[in-house]
Each structure stands twice: as C-alpha cells, then as structure tokens.
Specification:
mainly beta; globular; single chain; 882 residues; eight-stranded mixed beta sheet; 37% strand; disordered N terminus; 11 helices
Length: 882
C-alpha cells in the first residue's frame, strides 16, 4: 500500500514537473519573442548585400563579399574544410590563383596576395587593375585606368616581377589567356608587342615615331594579330596591319591600297575582326572628306510625310550614306572588297566568316514595332555574289542565330525552328511535327511573341539546343531528329541552362547575337523553377541519366559555382531568411552552411511571404505574393500596400534588405517592418484593355486578401512605377477602394503619348501600343474607344484617392510631360494630389539623396493616409484647397 502511494506520488510529481517545465519553456519562448525588437530606419545600415561568390579550384576555399550602404564593404575568404575565415575590409576584385593563393585589391592602388594556408601576405603598390593569366601562373598589373598610359608588370604567383613594360595603352589576352598583345606610347615612340606566356617570351612587332597604334585584336587560335595605325589625325584615316605570329610576318594595308574603293579610307568605327582561318580581315571604311548630310542648326528641318523614319530617328542613326561600311581584306591575295553598303547597312558574319548576312532596318518602314521586319540577304565572300534567303523576317535577336564554328544559320519562323546552310543553299525545318510550343504566345508576358531562345549548339557541330515552355531540346542539324533532353513538363518545372555554364563558353560573333557551344558528353548544370509554387533549384544533366536533382527547395536558389573536382557552392534565400551560402563537396553530399548573411535579423521581428490564389472576372486563375507585417497578430487588422507591375509571383522567395535607397522609392521590407501587409498581384491582360484588365485583376486580388480578415479595407494603398505607374493612375479612376496611391514615371494620357516621339529611340511611341506593352493591338484610328476607355486623364474627374506622383525631369523613356499633364488635370479638378520632380534623374532615381528623399516622402504619404499619422508639412501645404 505504501509502495502504491509512493508510486502515485512519483507520478504526480513527474506530471507536476512536466507542467512546470512546459510553463518554463513557454515563458522562455515568450520572453525570447518579447525580446525581439522592432526594426527602425536607424537600423537599416546594419544590413549587407551578399555578392561575388567564387570557389577555388581545389574546393578548399570560397570567397564572397558583403556590401553595405555606408560603403564599408568587406571581402571574405572561408575554408570549406575547417573553421577558418579571413576578412579583408574594403577589399575588392578577389580572385583565386593556383593552390591556396588569393589576391584582391585594397584602396590606394594596393594589390594584396595571401597564402591562405601559411597566412603569408605580399603587398604590391601602384596597381589599379590586374589580370590572372595562364591558369594562375602569372599576374599582370597596371598602374592606371583603362585608356591611360600605364606601367605594366608581369609577375609570378608570388608577386615577383618578371618583366616591366612602360607606357602601355592597351593590352588584349587571347582566348586561352596564355598570350597577350599590347600597345605602348613612350614619348613620341609607339610600339606593339607580343608576349607568349607559356614560355614567357616577349617580341616587339613594330615600333616607330608618329601616330599611335590601336584596336588590337586576335585571331581565335592566336596565330594572327590585327591592329590599326593612325595615318592622319584630321581625317582619322588608318593603316591596317596584320601580324602572323608563328612566322613573325607583318603585312600592311595602307589607305591608298583600297583600289576597289578609291573614295574610301580605313577607320576605327567598326569592329576589327580576323576570320578563324586567318584568311580574311574585316574592317570599317568611310568616305574621304565626307560632309554630313545633316542640316545645320539654323536651317529648316524637313520632316517628309512619306519618309520611312521620322526626322529625329533619321538624323540620329539613319545617315547611312556617310556611315562606316564593313569591308574584307584577303591579305594573301592583296584584295579588298566592300561588304555592306547604304542600301544594306546592317551586317552579320557567319561562324566561319565565309558569308555575310545583310539587311536594311527600313525594309518595311514605316512600321510600328520596336524593330521592324527585314529581308535577309547573304553574300558569298569568296565568290562575291549576293542572294535573298529570308523575306520579311522579325528582327528579335532570338529569331536568328549563327553557328559559331560553321556557316549554318538558325532562325525561328512560322512556329518552327529552321536551318539555312549557305554552302548547300538548303533550308531545313528542324522541328516539323513536334507537338510543343517554342514561343511565348501562351504566356502572360508583354508582346511581341518571341521564341524561348536557343541557348547554343553542340560542340560536335551536329545539334542545336532549343527551349520550349518547360524543357531543353536538341535538334539535329540535318533535320533527322528533334528530342527532349529534360522532362520538366511532367513535373511542372521549367529547366534552363544555368548562367554558370556560359561563363567560359561565350562566343561573340560580328554583328550578330552571341551564342555558346556545349560538350554534350559532359555534365551541364540546369536551373529549375516550379511554375506552381515558385520554388527553385539546380539539376545536373548528362546523357546517361538525364536530369538528376542537385538541390531544390521552397526558396530562391542561385549564384551556383562549380570547380574541377565537382564541388559546388550556391546561395539560398527566402523572404524571411537572408541569403545563405551553401557548399556541396560532391553531387550527393549534404549541404553545408558556410555563411549566413545578416545574422542580426534574428534580433528583430520579421514578416513572411505567402502565395495567394485568386481569379479575375473572366475566371482565369492567378497568383500573387502576400507579405505579412513583422508584428502580425491574427486578431488585428492592418493597412496594406498593393505594388503592381504585370507578373510578380515569381519573386515569392526573394529577400529584400530594408533600405531608404531605392530607385523607385518603394521597398517591400520597409513596409512589412512598419506594420503593413504588402500585396504583389499578378496581372494579365485582354487585347485593347490594359487599364481595365489591370483594374479587374488588382481588385480581385484585393478582395481575396480582405476576405481573409487581416486587412482593414479602408486602409489600402496602391503604388507602381512606369507601366505600373500608368496602371496605378488608371485604377484609381475606376474605384474608390484605395485610400492613397503613388504613381512613379507613369503615363497619364495614352492618346497624347501615342502621338509623341520617344527621347530614347527617336521613334513614334505608337509601337508601344500597337505591338508591345500596352497590348492595344490596333491603331488609334481603328479603335478610338479603347484608347479613350483606358486613358487615365480622361477619367480623372472620378478620382477620390489622394495621389502622389513622381518623375525624373530627364526621363528618356516616359517624358515628364505625362506627369505634368495629370498634375494639371488634378489641379484643375481640385483633387488631393502632389507631384515630385527630380531635376537630373532619368526613368528611375539614381542619386542617393534623391532616392532617400523619395523613399521617405512615399512612406510619409502612406503613413498619413493609411495610418492616420500626422501629415508631414509638405503634405499639408500641398494638398489643402480650403
């Protein structure tokens, strides 16, 4: 009986102890929660931005940089094997050399080398810029910025000087970075030299008094060098020099040698290029003593009504008669031949440079696209013959791509990818019969419709790589097959080749879009994005296994780096988790945290992000991002800001530092830390109704959130910039849901803008309406009602929402006149409104003082109207009509 009582007592004591422990833990967690502070503007400067991630070749070290608003940036190097870390305050341009040598720049033109194992440091003075060459065997240092004479020193990995060259004006490395050419000016002596970095040998190519040498360029394999020598400082005429490296042979083309083009002379305005086989040199020519056809400032401007281009555009870029033309020199035959000319001024070269692709951007002008369609002609440079090969082709840069190691040309047309082989004069449909979508016609992105892109070609010259909505494909260049390499459609995952894979595979071609070449026998890193939940990650693809998971989480993952030992580093973040640097020893290893940025965040309350779903009035399913306030209490109601611009949901997991320095004056984290919800809704559009569509989508999203019960429906603000500024201005003419609004660099009068000429491209702005962002799809005269229906200024009398506008007075994209017009309209209607004009700012605000001013005023505006805080003096003075 006593034992039973003792047992019952022990059980009761145990239960009491559990209760006490639970109460203690609850009190501890409550205390911890209560200890978390409210973050204020004074705390923003603690936050840093994480960048410049690099992994050493051994995989033993990783470097990264933290950038602070006060410019007290710090460079770090951390061991991936042990708890060892180096910090270099104000360090920049960190690079790994061989073994454990790391080099970086410090203020006052100092270059530091440190052995990370032994901690031995070497300081080099008078270094403004540097290069790591020949796989880290040498360091090239220069004392001055680009374009200035510098002392160039070649040093070994220990910083010891091997060679010094004075007066270097330019230096250019070959593709393998194991040789360089340089030009130098010392007194009146000008020289060009060549350095073989494999066995370290320096040769002087030419040295003479008089005019300088410039525009140094390499043949791809490093066997030849071309450069120019100024022969006449008044006309800027040049001689063209070609140096054969193995033979140490110098060949010169003088301006008077242009017998086929006697009225022309050699200039430096066009890119100097040597063909891969070394048989051709491409250079620019221009008329001798040409006189510009532009009218003088005091003469009348003649704006022809039937001209292909309007006068400002013609004056800016259309004077092809006097513009430089591309020509080719065959040095072994001493023959020169013009390639481009006034009627066909635009030129690209095929990969082997045996053919030139010519076009005229005025072919179908006047047009109302950003870039008009053209007819493409191809010139056989050996036979000097020209023929039409593609008629009325869109000129989106993704529509025509050349194979970098051959003459084949890929292009997208009529929903298929095609290949043209000029050697055979043959065109092949590469994707015929493939049941997929190669372009963006089903996406909710701004027109025009364009292909998802061609990332590159296979290194064996047999395949072209293509993207559809989800996957990576390869199509055989002989047209025999087209197949998927990934299976993202089944997983609702979009696969794309990681930007990391392009770092060393970029192949720039003359006049065309750069492309890449991939060895498909090796592994390729793929980016992966889930279209439903915006989760991201990386996969590794190879021919045997297809795509295999490397990492994929409900977060944003990017900045991947890989070394030769197949170790990986990458960055992961969420809205409520500052970026973390993670390391994988190998593909199947667990992730190791190397560094977590902004650890001070743990001391403060923070918000969180959530994906919300809603439907617009047509029943289309949409998504949006809802950001919660840091002090969220489900029993309370909060104010909310709606920030708009087309599709936003892909940014669900992006971490944003709190900051008063923002180029559009709005920072989502600032608001969540100050008791606001922030909503970023997706907006889709119907043709001819950009404003009406935006209104429907935004109101549907707002109703979804207010129905959740956390947001006070009388305390909702709206803001947007550029097209979002237009949408904000229009939406408040259609509804009184919003208690305050901010519109940045917005369009208020779309009819007036339709009939204006843009400062940036000098063309009529009608293209933005008929074939781009505004999605009107018709001319003003074909559908006036739609233009009137969607123009904010015509409905300004309906506005009850206090509006703050801002604009840059030097905005080349949306003229500040658009903001002025709305200001005048609202002023005449005696509406509550203000306009902030930043005198020297373009489309966004760059000056830090202006950024801070705009950020503070925007928040003061919302705080007053949504939180009922006392108005700042500028608001009171500027909005009272009594």
């Amino acid at each position: 009986m006593k034992k039973s009582n003792r047992r019952n007592h022990n059980v009761a004591h145990f239960r009491e102890s559990k209760i006490m422990v639970s109460i203690f833990l609850l009190l501890c967690f409550t205390s911890i929660a209560q200890l978390k502070k409210h973050l204020t503007q004074d705390d923003y400067s603690q936050w840093s931005t994480f960048s410049n991630v690099a992994l050493s070749e051994t995989g033993n070290w990783v470097s990264y940089k933290l950038n602070y608003e006060n410019k007290e940036d710090t460079l770090f190097v951390k061991s991936t094997r042990q708890n060892k870390i180096y910090s270099f305050p104000k360090g920049a341009n960190g690079k790994f050399l061989k073994g454990s040598i790391f080099t970086y720049q410090q203020p006052e033109k100092r270059l530091m080398l440190i052995n990370l194992d032994t901690q031995r440091k070497i300081e080099l003075s008078d270094v403004t810029r540097f290069e790591i060459v020949n796989n880290g065997k040498y360091i090239i240092t220069l004392g001055n910025k680009y374009g200035s004479n510098s002392t160039m020193s070649i040093r070994d990995e220990n910083g010891e000087t091997i060679d010094v060259i004075e007066g270097v004006t330019t230096h250019v490395l070959n593709d393998k970075r194991d040789a360089l050419i340089y030009s130098s000016d010392v007194s009146d002596n000008h020289s060009v030299g060549h350095i073989d970095l494999k066995k370290y040998k320096r040769d002087l190519i030419i040295s003479e008094n008089g005019h300088p040498f410039h525009n140094l360029t390499w043949q791809r394999n490093g066997n030849s060098i071309a450069f120019l020598k100024e022969t006449d400082s008044l006309t800027k005429s040049n001689a063209l020099l070609l140096y054969r490296v193995p033979q140490k042979k110098l060949i010169i083309l003088e301006p008077h040698d242009l017998k086929e083009m006697p009225e022309m002379h050699i200039i430096a305005e066009l890119k100097l290029t040597i063909s891969d086989d070394g048989t051709k040199v491409f250079f620019g020519v221009k008329k001798n003593n040409s006189v510009s056809s532009d009218t003088k400032n005091n003469e009348v401007e003649i704006w022809n009504g039937n001209a292909p281009w309007v006068y400002p555009m013609e004056k800016s870029v259309g004077n092809w008669e006097d513009a430089a033309k591309l020509s080719v020199w065959f040095p072994e035959n001493s023959i020169c031949m013009p390639i481009s000319f006034t009627e066909l001024p635009n030129v690209q070269l095929t990969g082997k440079q045996d053919y030139a692709i010519l076009s005229n951007p005025k072919s179908y002008a006047p047009h109302y696209k950003l870039d008009g369609d053209v007819d493409y002609y191809i010139t056989d440079l050996k036979k000097n013959t020209r023929s039409l090969f593609l008629k009325q082709q869109p000129t989106d840069e993704n529509n025509l791509i050349v194979f970098p190691y051959g003459n084949q040309i890929a292009y997208y047309r009529d929903t298929n990818w095609w290949l043209y082989d000029p050697d055979k004069n043959k065109q092949i449909n590469l994707t015929s019969g493939i049941a997929t979508v190669w372009d963006s016609k089903n996406d909710n992105f701004a027109p025009p419709i364009s292909p998802y892109n061609c990332p590159g070609w296979s290194s064996d010259g047999k395949y072209i790589l293509l993207y559809d909505t989800y996957d990576l494909w390869i199509a055989a260049l002989d047209g025999s097959s087209c197949k998927r390499l990934t299976y993202g459609r089944e997983k609702n995952i979009v696969f794309r080749i990681s930007p990391y894979e392009f770092l060393h595979k970029f192949s720039a071609k003359y006049g065309g879009r750069s492309t890449a070449v991939f060895d498909l026998s090796k592994e390729i890193i793929l980016e992966a994005t889930d279209k439903d939940d915006s989760s991201t990650g990386y996969y590794i693809w190879n021919t045997k296994e297809g795509e295999k998971l490397l990492v994929h989480n409900d977060s944003a993952i990017d900045q991947i780096q890989k070394n030769k030992n197949n170790s990986y580093v990458f960055v992961e973040q969420k809205f409520d988790r500052s970026p973390v640097l993670l390391f994988k020893q190998e593909k199947n290893s667990k992730n190791t945290v190397l560094f977590a940025s902004n650890p001070q965040q743990q001391r403060y309350n923070w918000g969180r992000s959530e994906l919300v779903h809603y439907t617009n009035k047509t029943g289309q399913a949409l998504k949006g991002i809802l950001l919660y306030p840091s002090d969220f209490d489900k029993e309370k109601k909060y104010p909310m800001i709606v920030h708009i611009y087309e599709i936003r949901s892909a940014g669900l997991h992006r971490y944003t530092n709190p900051s008063q320095y923002n180029d559009e004056g709005f920072n989502v984290t600032n608001y969540t830390l100050n008791g606001y919800f922030v909503l970023l809704p997706d907006i889709v559009y119907e043709s001819g109704n950009p404003g009406v569509s935006a209104t429907a989508c935004v109101l549907a999203a707002v109703k979804k959130i207010t129905d959740m019960g956390f947001v006070d429906p009388k305390k909702i603000g709206l803001t947007g910039h550029s097209f979002g500024g237009y949408e904000s201005s229009f939406i408040i003419t259609q509804t009184d849901v919003f208690s305050a609004a901010v519109s940045g660099a917005g369009i208020s009068d779309i009819v007036r803008w339709y009939f204006s000429i843009g400062k940036d491209i000098k063309a009529p702005e009608a293209w933005r309406f008929e074939s781009q962002l505004f999605r009107m799809g018709k001319t003003f005269y074909q559908d006036k009602d739609s233009y009137f229906r969607n123009s904010p200024i015509l409905h300004a009398a309906n506005i009850t929402t206090p509006l703050l506008q801002w604009t840059g007075k030097e905005d080349p994209t949306v003229s500040w006149d658009q903001s002025i017009a709305f200001y005048i309209a609202l002023r005449r209607l005696q509406k509550k409104h203000m306009l902030l004009v930043y005198p020297d700012e373009p489309h966004v605000v760059f000056n830090r003082n202006s950024q801070k001013d705009l950020t503070i005023r925007t928040q003061q505006w919302f705080d007053h109207y949504l939180k009922k805080q006392p108005p700042a003096a500028w608001i009171t003075a500027g909005t009272r009509w009594d």
